[in-house]
Amino acid sequence: QVQRVESGGGLVQAGGSLRLSCAASGSIFSINVMGWYRQAPGKQRELVALITSGGTTTYADSVKGRCTISRDNAKNTVYLQMNSLKPEDTAVYYCNVQKQGYPGSFWGQGTQVTVSS
After folding, report:
1. Sign of CA dihedral 74, 83, 89, 57
2. Paired residues of 21 in beta bridges
3. Chunked mean pLDDT (size 10), the chain, 117 residues
């Protein structure tokens, strides 16, 4: 099983930027779809962005235009660049594989993003 460690979160003011990283313990070269998810207090976990091995990306409407997902297979790392952050973006962010439309069964600790107003 490929384990993943998220990092790059922190406390930022509204309008600020963060780059989240997801480092995998094993190769992600053969994994077609990787995604970033987030969960805010009292809310269900939701999909933020997806990226295929070919570079095709998909974004939730709530972050479209403000976020960019990318991957570096050689470094076994997936990134999420977040700009123009809003307080509504406050959540724990996780990365995971997506298989047959569903996330993988393993979830890491995630990385906390807190956006102050």
Report:
1. negative
2. 7, 79
3. 88 98 83 94 96 94 98 91 98 94 92 97
